[in-house]
Design a protein that fits this description.
The complex is a heterodimer of chains A (332) and B (242). Helices cover 71% and strands 1% of the residues of chain A. By secondary structure, chain A is mainly alpha-helical. The N and C termini of chain A lie far apart (43 Å). The chains are: A mainly alpha (332), B alpha/beta (242).
Chain lengths: 332, 242
C-alpha cells in the first residue's frame, strides 16, 4: 500500500514538474504563436543553474556552491531567462518553422555544452548530490516524497494562477493579437518584437522553474536528461491537452506522462524478449504518433482554447433555446 | 482649410534593396479631404500606402505629416503621431471579442472610456455585438471594426488600403461613404481603390499611379473626363461606362 502511494507520489511529482514546463510552452505557442523547438535548453538551463548553485561541493567542477535551495532555484530560473533573452534577440526576426529550427539548434548546442564543459557541468557523468530542502529534518523518505509533491503542486498552482492573470491582462490580449496578425498589431501601435521577446523570456523562465525542480527531485543531472525527446514529450503534452488553454496544458502533462510510463511498463513486461531492447525506440514512435494523430483528428486538443463571448444572444443555437446566453456570462 | 496635412516628396521605396517598386512619387493630401490613389494592378498603390505607414523601407525621398518628417519611423510609433493605417485584409483580431479588439487599441488613449462610448455611438452595430468574437462579423462590419480601431487614437490622417476589397457593391458603397463622412470629423483620408467609379464618387482629389510612378492627378470630378486616363491606364471602355 505504502509502495503504491509512494509510486503515485513519484509519478505525480514528475507529471507536475512537466506540467510547469508545458505551461511555459503554452505561453510561447498557445498565447503568442512562438514555435519553440528547444524547450529542453531552457529546462536544462534551469536544471544546471540550480544544480551548480545549490549542489554539494565537488573538487572536480567549479560549481557546488551549496547555496540555499530557493536562491539556487531562482538562480537557475534567471539563467534560463538570460539564455532566452539572448536567443530571443538573435532570433527576433524569425517566425514559425525558422524559429523552431533555430531553437532546436540551441537545445542541441546546450546539450553539447553540458557534455563537453567538464569543468562546469561534469561532462557526461553529470552533477550529483543536491541537499533537498528540509530532507534532513523530515528523515522519512515516504513522508518527504509527499512533502516534495505538495511543494511541486504549490509551485504548479502559483504558475497557473500567475499565467491566467497574465493572459487575461492587456499584455496577454496584445500577445493574442500579435499571434493573429503582426502587421495589423503594428499598425495599431503595438510593438510585436518587444511583446514576443517578453513572452519568450517569461515562458522560458517557467521552463527553468521546471528544470530546477527536476534536479532538486533527482539530486542528479546529466546531458542524458536533456535529450531532444523531452522537447517532443512536452510538445505532445501541450498538443494533446490543448494549446491556448492552461488547464489543457496541465491535463496533457498528466495524460502523456501516464501514457509514457504505462507504455514503458507494458513493453518491458509483455513485449517479446527480443523486442525489449527496442522499448525506448518504440516509445519514441508512440509519442510521434500521438502528436501526428492529434494534429490530424483533434488539432485543438482535448481542452481547446476558450474563445469567450459574453453579451448578446448566442447565435450558435437555434432561436428559442437561448438559455446558454446567461451561462456564457457566468463563464467570463 | 486647404493646407497639406500629409505630403510625399520624391519617394523611392521597395521591399528589396536596389529594386525599387516606387520611383520618385509625389503626393499631397489636403486637410479634411479624401484623396484616392487608383491605377492598374501592380502599379504600386498598396506599396505607397505601406511606405507612408513605415511598413516598407524607403530608400529616397521623404514623408511629411503636418510639416514634420516621419520617414522611417517604426510603424508601431506612427499611431501616436496621429497617423493610422488600415490594412487591406486581416485588419482585425478574429479570436478576440469586439470589445477586446477595441480595448487593445484604446490601451494608450488617456480617456479610453469616453472614447469607447464615442466609437460605439459612431458604429452602433459594433456596440450591439461587443461581446462577440470579431471573427463572427460580416465583411462590412469587419471593415467597420478596422476603421473604429484605427480611429481610436484620434488620428489626423488615416491610410486605407482597398477598404472595399471583397465586399458586395452595396457594402462597398457604405464603407466608402463611411470614409467620406470621416473627413467631416477632422480626419484626412488617403485610400487605395480598385473600384475607380466608387472611389471617384467619394474622393476630392485623385492620383493615378502606374509602373510605380506618378502618372496624372487632378480633382476627382474632372479626372475621368481626361482622355489620357482612359487610354493609358484604365482602359477606354471603363471611361465610356462611367
Amino acid at each position: 500500500m505504502i509502495g503504491m502511494i509512494s509510486y503515485l507520489a513519484f509519478f505525480s511529482t514528475m507529471a507536475a514538474i512537466f506540467a510547469i514546463a508545458v505551461l511555459g510552452l503554452n505561453l510561447h505557442w498557445g498565447y503568442t504563436g512562438l514555435f519553440n523547438g528547444g524547450v529542453v535548453a531552457f529546462f536544462g538551463a534551469g536544471a544546471y543553474g540550480t544544480m551548480i548553485l545549490g549542489g554539494r561541493a565537488d573538487a572536480t567542477v567549479l560549481g557546488g556552491f551549496g547555496l540555499p535551495f530557493l536562491v539556487a532555484l531562482a538562480g537557475g530560473v534567471v539563467l534560463a531567462g538570460m539564455l532566452a533573452w539572448i536567443v530571443g534577440l538573435l532570433t527576433v526576426r524569425l517566425r514559425h518553422d525558422y524559429l523552431a529550427i533555430s531553437t532546436f539548434g540551441v537545445a542541441i548546442a546546450f546539450e553539447s555544452l553540458t557534455r563537453n564543459a567538464e569543468w562546469l557541468t561534469g561532462g557526461a557523468r553529470g552533477l550529483r548530490g543536491f541537499p533537498r530542502p528540509f530532507e534532513a529534518a523530515v528523515g522519512n523518505n515516504f513522508v518527504y516524497g509527499l512533502l516534495f509533491l505538495a511543494f511541486v503542486l504549490l509551485v504548479l498552482v502559483l504558475v497557473y494562477i500567475g499565467l491566467e492573470r497574465l493572459v487575461r491582462s492587456p499584455f496577454g490580449r496584445a500577445l493574442r493579437a500579435i499571434r493573429e496578425d503582426e502587421t495589423a498589431a503594428r499598425s495599431l501601435g503595438k510593438n510585436p518584437t518587444r511583446l514576443r521577446l517578453t513572452s519568450f523570456v517569461i515562458g522560458s523562465m517557467i521552463m527553468g522553474v521546471a528544470g530546477g525542480l527536476y534536479v532538486s527531485f533527482y539530486a542528479f543531472v546529466s546531458p542524458q536528461d536533456l535529450a531532444p525527446i523531452l522537447t517532443f514529450q512536452i510538445w505532445a503534452m501541450l498538443i494533446v491537452g490543448g494549446a491556448g488553454n492552461n488547464r489543457g496544458a496541465i491535463l496533457g502533462a498528466f495524460l502523456i506522462w501516464a501514457a509514457w510510463t504505462a507504455s514503458g511498463f507494458l513493453l518491458a513486461r509483455h513485449a517479446p524478449v527480443a523486442m525489449q531492447i527496442y522499448t525506448g525506440s518504440i516509445q519514441y514512435i508512440l509519442i510521434g504518433s500521438v502528436i501526428v494523430g492529434m494534429l490530424l483528428w483533434r488539432p485543438q486538443g482535448l481542452l481547446p482554447e476558450r474563445l469567450e463571448t459574453s453579451a448578446g444572444p448566442d447565435r450558435t443555437r437555434p432561436a428559442g433555446t437561448n438559455t446558454t446566453a446567461t451561462t456564457n456570462k457566468g463563464v467570463t | 482649410m486647404t493646407d497639406a496635412v500629409l505630403s510625399v516628396e520624391g519617394l523611392t521605396a521597395g521591399y528589396v534593396r536596389d529594386l525599387p517598386i516606387l520611383r520618385d512619387v509625389n503626393l499631397t493630401l489636403r486637410r479634411d479631404t479624401l484623396c484616392a490613389i487608383i491605377g492598374p494592378n501592380g502599379a504600386g498603390k498598396s506599396t505607397l500606402i505601406k511606405a507612408i505607414a513605415g511598413l516598407v523601407p524607403v530608400s529616397a525621398g521623404r514623408v511629411m505629416l503636418d510639416g514634420k518628417p516621419i520617414t522611417g519611423i517604426r510603424p508601431d510609433q506612427m499611431a501616436s503621431l496621429g497617423l493610422a493605417y488600415v490594412p487591406q485584409t486581416d485588419n482585425i483580431f478574429r479570436s478576440l471579442k469586439i470589445s477586446e479588439n477595441l480595448a487593445l487599441v484604446l490601451r494608450r488613449v488617456p480617456d479610453r472610456a469616453t472614447r469607447l462610448d464615442e466609437l460605439y455611438t459612431l458604429f452602433p452595430p459594433l456596440a450591439e455585438k461587443r461581446g462577440d468574437r470579431a471573427g463572427s462579423l460580416s465583411g462590412g462590419q469587419r471593415q467597420m471594426l478596422a476603421v473604429a480601431m484605427a480611429l481610436a487614437s484620434r488620428p489626423r490622417v488615416m491610410l486605407m488600403d482597398e477598404p472595399s476589397a471583397g465586399l458586395s457593391p452595396k457594402i462597398q458603397r457604405e464603407v466608402l461613404d463611411l470614409a467620406r463622412g470621416l473627413t467631416e470629423k477632422g480626419v484626412s483620408i488617403l485610400l487605395v481603390e480598385q473600384n475607380v467609379k466608387q472611389a471617384l464618387r467619394v474622393a476630392d482629389h485623385c492620383y493615378i499611379l502606374a509602373e510605380g510612378r506618378n502618372q496624372i492627378d487632378g480633382p476627382a470630378e474632372s479626372i475621368l473626363s481626361d482622355p489620357a486616363v482612359g487610354e493609358i491606364y484604365l482602359g477606354g471602355r471603363r471611361v465610356g461606362a462611367a
